[in-house]
Amino acid sequence: MSKTEYNDQKPTEDGLNLAPWERQFRRILTPFEEFLHRQTTSGLLLMAMAVLALILANGPFAETYSEVLRIYVGIGFGDWSLKMSLHHWINDGLMVFFFFVIGLELKREFLVGELADRRNAVLPIVAAIGGMVVPALFYIALNPQGDAAAGWGIPMATDIAFATGVMALLGARVPKALVTFLIALAIVDDLGAVMVIAVFYTETIALLPLFMAALLVIALIGLNRSGVRNPVPYFIISVLLWYALLSSGVHATLAGVIGAMTVPAYPKYNPSKFSAHVRTLMDRFDASNQPGRSVMTNIALRSEVQALRNGVIGVEAPLQRLEHFWHMPVAFVVIPIFALANAGIPIEIGALGQTLSNPVMMGVSVGLILGKFIGITGASWLAIKFGVAVLPSATRFSQIAGASLLAGIGFTMSIFVAQLAFAGQDEMLLMAKTGILGASLLAGVSGFVWLYLTGNPASEPKQ
Questions:
Q1: Number of domains in the chain
Q2: Phi and psi for 85 in degrees, rounded to 5?
Q3: N- to C-terminal Cα distance for the chain?
Q4: Separation CA 177–CA 170 (nearest Å)
Q5: Are residues 132 and 278 in the same domain?
Q6: Tens digit of pLDDT for each residue in 172-202?
Q7: Are residues 373 and 305 in the same domain?
Q8: Cβ neighbours around 61 below 10 Å, total
Q9: Are residues 297 and 395 part of one domain?
Q10: Residue 222 covered by a domain
């Protein structure tokens, strides 16, 4: 930094040091940052990437789009190398971060979230089970045997980003408790999907890599039990776990969930200890402060600032910190790239009738729309009827039915399961993706309309 540059950063009336152009940039960036943090934004971006993928797959760049995804990319050290197509790197590598965030969300929900309280957890758990079992049964009824039967897990999933994004568009027309119900349901749904992937979509098992994976899991647990809160050792071991699972035949993305489950959920300092620590540091900070001198030229002040930073890190649980850090990269980079790589399906208008009557396409569509609606609504009604669960506060049962329609938006996880179920079977995979996209669109629109009509903004507080 030049002396001129240093002198140009003059404090404002509120005590902020702003560079010459910074005030103008802040005026531009602040609305953009607010837009990024809205619940609907990640869903809109996901939708845009899906539309772009469809355009690329059905336009003049269709061949280029396909060829780019088939490009082989490798890494190597000495005699060791790992090569996969770009498509596989996205699905088996990049999506680990998506599953890592899912794992963090699952752990938080079961420890301190909606699912930590039995009274609040029963309804979304029962509803999620109904919303997984009934869609699978609908699919099996239409595809009882043969290779097509492997797709039974596809309509079980709910896309949490899309579903909550659509509900967020309704604003005050839906109670906050209904949004919480849908999020909790989708999280339990994700847990079910992870278990299905681990148990039913693993073809062959290599015992030695699986044994190595087990040792790495023990190492992760050991880090947790030893009070290690630095995320770097967890990251390194989780990368090794990813490779071990990839070599074992178990789907490698499960390394993300396993790694997340071992991240400590407790901070170093409790609130009282942190408060006392900060007060001591602030007294020393004030004593070291010299008017007219910046932090850069005051060694004592720099030391107290660093100690304050370490204290803030110490009072925040690593799980909480990592979930906050990875939320936006996953929502705005990982999932959109996945959608761009997987939502591109060629559409032939002349064969539309044949496509709509295809058993795989019908099984996925009926499972996501009708299966989710009947499964979630039916299971919720039974749980409430027999006194096992109660309706969320300020929520009507008709709104639970509307949320069950939104749960039919399968997209991300459904496409992921379809890739596993129909690996190497392009025609069935195409039919499954067509069913997912069509059903997700219909579920989103019908769920939005249902909740809009059943909502009562006058009786709900502003959100």
A1: 2
A2: -70, 160
A3: 45
A4: 14
A5: no
A6: 788 888 888 888 898 888 888 888 888 888 7
A7: no
A8: 13
A9: no
A10: no
Over residues 205-214, the pLDDT tens digits come to 788 998 999 9
Q: Is the dihedral of CA 355, 359, 364, 367 positive or negative?
A: positive
Structural tokens at position 341: 């790589």
Which tens digits make up the pLDDT trace of 141-153?
A: 999 999 999 999 9
Residues 310 and 395 in one domain: no
Q: What angle do CA 153, 163, 110 make, to 5 degrees?
A: 75
| Residues 229 and 215 sit within 8 Å (Cβ to Cβ) | no
303 and 406 share one domain: no
φ/ψ of residue 52, rounded to 5: -60, -40
Kindly report the backbone phi and psi dihedral angles of residue 462, in degrees, each rounded to the nearest multiple of 5, phi listed first.
-65, 140
Whole-number Å distance between alpha carbons of 448 and 436: 18
Residue 426, classified by CB atoms within 10 Å of its CB into exposed (0-12), middle (13-18) or buried (19+), is: exposed
Q: Which of 37, 13, 100 is nearest to 335 (CA)?
A: 100
Residue 213 lies in a domain: no
- Amino acid 455 reads G
Does residue 12 carry a pLDDT above 90? Answer: no
Length of the chain measured in residues:
463
143 Cβ partners below 8 Å, 6+ apart? Answer: 149, 151, 152, 359, 360, 363
- Token pair belonging to 357: 């009557």
Judge whether 346 and 136 are in contact, CB under 8 Å.
no
- CA dist 182 and 116 (Å) reads 16
Query: Among 455, 362, 366, 397, which Cα is nearest to 127's?
Result: 397
User: 365: buried, middle or exposed (CB in 10 Å: 19+, 13-18, 0-12)?
Assistant: buried
The contacts of residue 389 (CB under 8 Å, 6+ apart) are 122, 123, 126, 380, 383
Hey, is 281 helix, strand or coil?
helix
